[in-house]
Write a structure and sequence with these properties.
Blueprint (H helix, E strand, L loop, with lengths): L1 H5 L1 H25 L3 H29 L4 H14 L1 H21 L6 H10 L2 H30 L3 H9 L3 H4 L10 H26 L5
Helix pairs in contact: 2-3, 3-4, 7-10
Length: 212
C-alpha cells in the first residue's frame, strides 16, 4: 500500500498513457482494418483502465483516510468519462469514420450516422438540445452546491449571506467561503467555473443559432 501512496502520480500518468495507446489501437483496428469485434476488445480495455484508476484512488483514500488533490483529479476524470465522455466519444467516433472514410474513399457511416449529422445541421434542433442539457446541468449544479454549502455552514441564513456577499470568491481561501474544507472548496470553485462556461456555451446556440 505504501508503494501506491509513494508512486500514485506515476501510476496515474502510466494509466493515462495506456489510455492513449488503447485509444490509438482501437482507432487503427476499427477505422483501418474494419474489425469492429476486435476493436471492442480495446474499448473494453479502456473501461478496465478507468476502473483501475478509480480503484487506485479508493485504495489510497483508504490508506490515508483523507481526500486530496490526487483523488479530486481522478474523480473529475471518472465523472467526465461516465457522463459527457461517452457522448464525446461517440461524436469523435462518428467524425473519425466520416473523415477517414473520405480519405480511403469508402463509406464507414451508417444510416443512423447520417441522420445525426443532418440533425446537427439544424440550428433549432441544436438549440433545443443544449437548452435541455444546460437545464439538467443547472439542476444538478444547484443540488450539488447546496450540499457542499450545507456541510460548510451552520444555517440557511448563513448560506444566504454568502450568496449576497461574494467577496469570499476572490480571496482564494476556503476559510472565508461556505465550503467545509480545502477539498470541498476546490471541487466547488472548479465546478462553478465549468458550469459557467458550459451554461454560456449551451445557450449561445439559442441566442446565436448561426454560430457553429
Amino acid at each position: 500500500m505504501q508503494f501506491l501512496i509513494n508512486y500514485q502520480w506515476q501510476l496515474f500518468i502510466t494509466i493515462e498513457i495506456l489510455f492513449l495507446l488503447t485509444f490509438l489501437a482501437f482507432g487503427f483496428v476499427r477505422y483501418f482494418l474494419n474489425k469492429d469485434r476486435l476493436s471492442f476488445i480495446f474499448l473494453s480495455s479502456f473501461f478496465a483502465l478507468l476502473i483501475a484508476e478509480a480503484l487506485l484512488a479508493f485504495l489510497i483514500y483508504q490508506a490515508t483516510g483523507k481526500i486530496e488533490t490526487f483523488q479530486i483529479v481522478i474523480i473529475i476524470f471518472v465523472l467526465y468519462a461516465v457522463t459527457f465522455g461517452i457522448k464525446d466519444f461517440k461524436n469523435l467516433d462518428r467524425w473519425m469514420r466520416q473523415k477517414i472514410g473520405k480519405w480511403r474513399n469508402v463509406d464507414l457511416l451508417h444510416d443512423e450516422d447520417y441522420e445525426i449529422i443532418e440533425r446537427k445541421q439544424d440550428s433549432k434542433y441544436m438549440a433545443k438540445k443544449y437548452r435541455i442539457s444546460a437545464t439538467i446541468h443547472l439542476f444538478i449544479f444547484l443540488i450539488g452546491q447546496s450540499i457542499l454549502w450545507y456541510l460548510g455552514t451552520a444555517s440557511v441564513s448563513e448560506m444566504l449571506g454568502y450568496l449576497k456577499d461574494l467577496s469570499w470568491f476572490e480571496t482564494g481561501d476556503y476559510a472565508d467561503s461556505p465550503y467545509a474544507n480545502e477539498t470541498s472548496y476546490s471541487i466547488g470553485i472548479l465546478w462553478i467555473i465549468v458550469f459557467f462556461i458550459d451554461f454560456v456555451w449551451s445557450w449561445s446556440y439559442t441566442f446565436w443559432p448561426s454560430r457553429k
